Amino acid sequence: MKVAVLDINGKDTGRKAELSNDVFAIEPNNHAVYLDVKQYLANQRQGTHKSKERNEIAGSTRKIKKQKGTGTARAGSIKSGVFKGGGRMFGPRPRNYSFKLNKNLKRLARKSALSMKANDNSIVVLEDFNFDSPKTKNFTSILKALEIDNKKSLFVLGGLNNNVYLSSRNLKGSEVVTSSELSTYKILNANKLVLVESALEGIESNLSK
């Protein structure tokens, strides 16, 4: 699959980038995508939720009324969950929501997500670029040139570039990652996937194993 390479002004450079069919043109596996996205979102959860149970409530331990003869249900503690101010019954406890997926499934999920974007013509290949210093307006000008300033976009770089990363950090609709940080969720969450030329080799080598 060949895609035109654009410059930072949104103009065709006249060159073509070759996208591997083994990565960008496979039959998407929807279940693999579902599991990988589910794992990503589960890993974002802190799992620190907690409510007090009856043994953690401060209160009297005396029996609040006699056992029989009241005509109502028996009750032994004011800390019971059936009373106002009592402990919560079956409340949330701290837990770890993460779960394991094997590497082959995660690799298949990412290839499926990239193939979905390729099928939708949502992939843009951009020539390598850099900024002299971090400036948001420089990054915004690229978004406008590519006509994606009003869309969610994900820029994939070949390696860490602080000037580009810091220039995009204030923009809610755009995110910059390296090829090694690419995830299924981030691919699908973006309307446009912008791949810098130097990132292509890293993506294909990571996913062609």
Describe this structure in words.
The protein is an alpha/beta fold. It has 2 domains: 2-46 and 99-207, Ribosomal Protein L4, Chain: A, CATH 3.40.1370; 51-91, no CATH class. It has 7 helices and 6 strands. The protein has helices at residues 21-24, 30-43, 103-119, 136-145, 162-168, 184-189, 197-207; strands spanning 2-6, 12-18, 123-126, 153-157, 174-178, 192-196. It has a 6-stranded mixed beta sheet. β4, α5 (162-168) and β5 (174-178) form a beta-alpha-beta unit. α2 packs across α3 and α4 crosses α5 (162-168). The protein is elongated. The relative contact order is 0.19. The mean pLDDT is 93.
List descriptors:
209 residues; alpha/beta; Ribosomal Protein L4, Chain: A; 2 domains; 7 helices; structural constituent of ribosome; rRNA-binding; ribosomal protein; Large ribosomal subunit protein uL4; RNA-binding
Summarize the structure.
By secondary structure, the protein is α/β, with parallel strands linked by helices. 33% of the residues lie in helices and 15% in strands.
